[in-house]
TrEMBL record:
Lineage: Bacteria, Bacillati, Actinomycetota, Actinomycetes, Kitasatosporales
Protein's name according to its UniProt entry: Uncharacterized conserved protein YbjQ, UPF0145 family
Family: Belongs to the UPF0145 family.
A Pfam family the protein falls into: YbjQ_1
Length: 276
């Protein structure tokens, strides 16, 4: 990613016309939002005005992965496909927000939906509410992140309000993914474990490694944003359509920075509130 505005490539003409009608200051313009009433009021109390609903979409065909199925291994082609498809959807959502002159996007939802165009085709969708700050952050500067892009956050309206009131600001949603194949047990191992309570170390190590790869990649994205930490982390497993021994581990959270010098701490990027 560069310091330039997200490209509007891939954003349909109808969406650009809709966004032009939502532009702040345009006579008769009204905002749209998927925030609940409580979330809307809390976002307003936090000092941000909703501008409009923004979204990004990518229908993606996942390619073929070759490998030795008798061993634990990451499926690099599939990991790259799942990451790139989500990144396309996120970038297009950010481009819509930038077109509106937004400072950020709150309440972001990032989903994957299978489509009937083929068993290896899925639609990746990012949607949220673009907002603009009523004033500059404490101490000056901008609400946008260090890449000059609108911040993104998947925090609820309540958590967003708490974050701002506590003196922190979101930088962006950060994510990591790992598609991993877990080798089948050999027949001898299956037979020797029958009727026994015993850890299957091969499976334990495979799942541990896959989760660690996803978490490390999410943390690397946070470090690139110069974040102090990552909040609201979710670590989920998705099987998609690859079969019982192949699983995607997907880690996502909101990278944050302090708004006041007294909140700055000297330590590496940390991960907070791990769920899953």
């Amino acid at each position: 990613m560069t310091n330039e505005e997200p490209s509007a490539e891939g954003v349909p003409a109808d969406a650009m016309r809709r966004l032009s009608e939502l532009a702040p200051g345009r006579a008769g313009s009204i905002f749209t939002s998927d925030l609940s009433v409580n979330e809307f009021l809390l976002v307003r109390e936090a000092g941000f005005k909703p501008i409009g609903l923004v979204l990004g979409s990518s229908i993606y065909h996942v390619g073929i992965q070759l490998g030795r199925w008798g061993k634990n291994q990451e499926l690099d082609t599939l990991s790259q496909a799942m990451y790139h498809a989500r990144e396309l959807a996120m970038t297009r959502m950010e481009a819509e927000a930038a077109t509106l002159g937004a400072d950020g996007i709150v309440g972001v939802r990032l989903t994957v939906e299978a489509r009937e165009f083929g068993k290896d085709v899925a639609e990746f969708i990012a949607i949220g509410t673009a907002v603009k700050g009523d004033a500059a952050p404490p101490g000056g500067g901008t609400w946008r992140n260090n890449k000059g892009q609108p911040f993104t956050s998947d925090l609820s309206g309540q958590d967003f309000w708490t974050l701002i009131r506590a003196g922190y600001a979101p930088l962006g949603m950060v994510m990591g993914t790992c598609v991993y194949h877990i080798a089948h047990q050999r027949l001898g191992a299956v037979m020797s474990n029958m009727g026994r309570n015993v850890e299957i170390e091969q499976f334990t190590q495979a799942l541990y490694d896959a989760r660690e790869l996803a978490m490390a990649r999410m943390q690397a994205e946070a470090e690139a944003l110069h974040a102090e930490g990552v909040v609201g982390v979710q670590l989920n497993a998705h099987n998609h359509r690859w079969g019982g021994h192949t699983t995607e581990f997907f880690s996502i959270g909101t990278a944050v920075r302090p708004l006041r010098p007294d909140h700055e701490i000297e330590r590496p990027t940390m991960v907070l509130s791990l769920d899953g």
